[in-house]
Amino acid sequence: MSTTVVTAPSRRAILDLYAATLRSSRAFSSYNFREYFVGRTREVFRGMQTESDPARLRTMYADARAELGVLRRSAIVNQLYGGPKLAVEVHAPAQEDTQQA
């Protein structure tokens, strides 16, 4: 009779994956895609943070690693075919207050 012990990924491995996923999410040139993937990344890793079952955490980690590869490829394609900046992305220079004497 063999017992299989499922070990969860280390905290460092999860944090490294989180940082890589956020980095890839921020690489999108399209504002809507970028904001969506940054938010989704935070949501997925918050779920991992609250998970206590090692087997489930290992599965979530493996899924997140697979999604990172897809995210990296998608970000590259988005950078190649990115469109013009949206109005919410354009940073207008700060206007100085002119005081009249």
UniProtKB/TrEMBL annotation:
Q: Give the UniProt record's GO annotations in the biological process aspect.
A: iron-sulfur cluster assembly
**Could you give one GO CC term from the UniProt record?**
L-cysteine desulfurase complex
Q: Kindly give the Pfam families that the UniProt entry links to this protein.
A: Complex1_LYR (PF05347)
All residue ranges annotated as the Complex 1 LYR protein domain in the record: 12-69
Where are the membrane-spanning stretches? none
* Entry-linked InterPro entries: Complex1_LYR_dom, Complex1_LYR_LYRM4, ISC_assembly_LYR
The UniProt similarity line reads: Belongs to the complex I LYR family.
Stated name of the protein: Complex 1 LYR protein domain-containing protein
> Origin organism of this chain?
Sphagnurus paluster
Organismal lineage: Eukaryota, Fungi, Dikarya, Basidiomycota, Agaricomycotina
